[in-house]
């Protein structure tokens, strides 16, 4: 193709690109756009039929089903990398089965079905066994899965089930058992009508993420048996559900939040092989196992907005002899945290082994300089961590109405900076966050403790 403009001949450099690169470019365009390229030249006439990634989004039912079917029948790519179907109107299960069947005949590797309507659509159960190449399957929103017999998806590695409903426990069990090479499972539930217990028995599973909004569930939960599991994320399991981890000896990282009511001794013991833990739990609701030791734990991240969180910290420090990095985080930007009023830090009788021999990094984000228990925790760690190399403590921003506390904050942080540390090589970086006005705008820049003096405090302009 040659482009002519004002008597100047410009050679079309795009058409000189390799077919693989052109197809990659077309895959990034909407279907209507890359079909339109067929009029550019003879080379482009059938190129659109080889695009390996297809995404159909329907906002209007009229002629949509007919157009999708016609397009897929015209498609000639030997390998279809992905097919995404997103619906904002009612769609028939028979149509989905037909389209998916055509795509599977093209050696489909990724299939995504997103049905964004209140009325459920039943996913054709035959599709669970109608392929040998599918690597990724993602079912989202108003999709009903009812599988009454075992399936066979030997190639499947990734399965996402986002707000999907299941006919019964057997439906989920039949799917998982039919995926012997499954490595990544993501589950999200949003107020289901039935109470199910999900038995996740997956020998090859490496990553598992569970996120629940099931506040109305009366029973059910999860039982996990995954001997190859390396990464686990669980968030938001309700008070009445259960969660058991029967087998996870290869666990490397676990992120556990908002599940305190179901955390028991057995659950925490199942995390003992983890090297990294991220915990957002209430120590008043957690049953901490006696004598539990996290021998492999080197990184611990904890949130500090739950009642008496420091007691859980003390237990974790005492149970993690090889801990090298500790990070504390507060989600709240406010100083009047009702959930932690009236607490008292009781330091351990004996200094934990990790402070004596291994802890090298200590980070505290949104440190509340005006809370006595937080001052005591920070002081305790600085005074007892003999191998500490770096400590970074940042305070929460002061609100406009709290401007009178600015000088007090500076004084308290200077006292913390003056704490005699167990480690002579420790560098303490205290960061003062900016002052915020009533509209949430910063009126004083962030600065390090050493760069803010009394003149700076007196000259803050609002």
UniProtKB/TrEMBL annotation:
InterPro entries hit by this protein: F-box-like_dom_sf, F-box_AtFBL13-like, F-box_dom, FBD, FBL13/AtMIF1-like, LRR_dom_sf, LRR_FXL15/At3g58940/PEG3-like
Residues annotated as domain FBD: 353-431
Domain of life: Eukaryota
Pfam families in UniProt: F-box, FBD, LRR_At5g56370
UniProt name for this protein: FBD domain-containing protein
């Amino acid at each position: 193709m040659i482009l002519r403009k004002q008597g100047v001949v410009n050679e079309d450099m795009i058409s000189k690109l390799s077919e693989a690169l052109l197809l990659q470019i077309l895959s990034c365009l909407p279907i209507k756009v890359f079909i339109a390229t067929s009029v550019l030249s003879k080379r482009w006439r059938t190129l659109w039929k080889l695009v390996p990634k297809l995404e159909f989004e329907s906002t209007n039912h009229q002629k949509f089903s007919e157009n999708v079917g016609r397009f897929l029948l015209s498609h000639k790519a030997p390998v279809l990398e992905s097919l995404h179907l997103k619906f904002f109107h009612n769609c028939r299960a028979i149509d989905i089965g037909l389209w998916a069947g055509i795509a599977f005949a093209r050696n489909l590797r990724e299939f995504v079905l997103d049905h964004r309507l209140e009325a459920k659509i039943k996913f054709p159960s035959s599709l669970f066994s109608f392929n040998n190449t599918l690597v990724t399957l993602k079912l989202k929103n108003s999709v009903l899965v009812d599988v009454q017999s075992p399936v066979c998806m030997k190639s499947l590695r990734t399965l996402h089930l986002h707000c999907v409903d299941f006919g019964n426990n057997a439906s989920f069990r039949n799917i998982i058992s039919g995926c012997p090479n499954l490595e990544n499972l993501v589950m999200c539930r949003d107020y289901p009508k039935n109470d199910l217990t999900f038995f996740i028995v997956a020998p090859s599973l490496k990553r598992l993420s569970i996120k629940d909004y099931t506040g109305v569930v009366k029973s059910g939960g999860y039982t996990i048996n995954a001997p190859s599991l390396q990464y686990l994320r669980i968030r938001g399991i309700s008070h009445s559900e259960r969660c058991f981890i029967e087998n996870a000896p290869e666990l490397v990282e676990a992120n556990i939040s908002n599940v305190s009511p179901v955390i028991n001794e057995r659950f925490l013991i199942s995390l003992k092989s983890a090297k990294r833990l991220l915990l957002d739990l209430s120590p008043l609701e957690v049953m901490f196992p006696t004598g539990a030791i996290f021998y492999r734990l080197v990184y611990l991240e904890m949130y500090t907005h739950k009642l008496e969180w420091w007691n859980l910290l003390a237990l974790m420090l005492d149970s993690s002899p090889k801990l090298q990095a500790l990070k504390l985080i507060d989600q709240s930007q406010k100083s009047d945290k009702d959930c932690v009023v009236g607490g008292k830090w009781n330091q351990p009788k004996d200094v934990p082994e990790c402070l004596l021999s291994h802890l090298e990094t200590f980070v505290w984000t949104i440190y509340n300089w005006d809370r006595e228990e937080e001052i005591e925790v920070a002081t305790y760690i600085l005074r007892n961590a003999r191998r500490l190399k770096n400590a970074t403590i940042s305070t929460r921003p002061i609100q406009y109405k709290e401007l009178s506390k600015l000088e007090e904050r500076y004084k308290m942080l200077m006292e913390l900076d003056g704490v005699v540390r167990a480690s002579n090589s420790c560098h303490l970086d205290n960061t003062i966050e900016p002052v915020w006005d009533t509209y949430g705008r910063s009126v004083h820049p962030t600065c390090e403790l050493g760069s803010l003096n009394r003149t700076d405090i007196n000259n803050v302009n609002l």
